[in-house]
Amino acid sequence: MDQRNNGKRIKLHFDGKRLNATENGRYAGGWDGVSGKPGSQVPQFQKFSDTGPIPECVYDAEQLQYPPADSWERMKGRVGRGTWPGLEAAWGNSRAFLKARSIADPQAAHRSGFSIHGGEDPGSAGCIDLTDGMDRFADFYRNTGRSAELNASYPGYDPGKPGDAGAASETGGRWEPDGARNRRSFLLRDALRIFE
After folding, report:
1. I need a labelling partner for 170 at 20 to 30 A (CA). Which of 54, 74, 98, 152 fits?
2. Half-sphere exposure of 149 (CA within 13 A, CB side)
3. Could you give the CA distance from residue 180 to residue 94 in angstroms, rounded to a whole number?
4. Is the separation of the CB atoms in 21 and 11 below 8 Å?
5. CA dihedral defined by 44, 46, 49, 51, rounded to 10 degrees?
6. Which is nearest to 136 in space by CA: 87, 188, 192, 94?
7. From CA 152, how far away is CA 150, in angstroms rounded?
8. By the 8 A CB rule, do 137 and 189 touch?
């Protein structure tokens, strides 16, 4: 299906634990997810390739892709090669690649190749892994008929806090709801304020 924008604004926000969607500024759905390998799914590891979570950034989410039907491509996938290494067990039944606009932490700017996908086991090399929620997200995304903008940010993350050694030294381009720095937690309405 062609997923070009037809006037409606679809925005996604990933905070390290959940992917939320708004359509024309109104909440449209949410899916639990993770990013990074187990033990490295915290913002401090954003700069580590193939280990840490997706770097804070605004991304363009591209069209959904589906596993190959071609038997040769499927054979390559079964042995960890080709365009879908690991096939559905690793990626789920669909995926959408993300194109970064500008990564907030210059130490993480070398990272790329992220997508939103599913799979059997939670965890990724930096992609947003919705595991068994990917099919529900794909239904939503397919039905919107367009691409989307995704904001990956970690509102509770403070790179200047002691104990966050090696964390990002800048916050340029990072999303923070008004007053979030001074609060220990935030509400969903705060997280969605960016989409208004």
Report:
1. 98
2. 17
3. 34
4. yes
5. 60
6. 94
7. 6
8. no
Question: ∠ CA(150), CA(57), CA(97), 5° rounding?
Answer: 50
CB atoms within 10 A of CB 106: 12
Task: Calculate what percentage of the chain has a pLDDT beyond 90.
Answer: 66
Residue holding tokens 């037809």? 6
Query: Measured between alpha carbons, how far is 138 from 145 in angstroms, rounded to an integer?
Result: 11
31 three-class SS: strand
Q: Could you give the CA distance from residue 22 to residue 45 in angstroms, rounded to a whole number?
A: 28
Decide if pLDDT at 187 tops 70.
Answer: no
C-beta separation of 21 from 29 below 8 A: yes
Give the separation between CA 169 and CA 52, rounded to whole angstroms: 17
Q: How many CB atoms are closer than 10 A to CB 109?
A: 14
pTM here?
Answer: 0.77
Identify the residue whose tokens are 């970064």: 100
117 forms bridges with which residues in the sheet? Answer: 95, 129
Tell me which of 13 and 168 has the higher pLDDT. Answer: 13
Strand residues in the chain grouped as ranges (E): 10-14, 18-23, 26-32, 34-35, 57-65, 95-103, 115-117, 128-129, 148-152
CB under 8 Å to 12, separation ≥6 — which residues? 19, 20, 21, 61, 148, 149, 150, 151
Cα(78)–Cα(5) distance, integer angstroms: 35
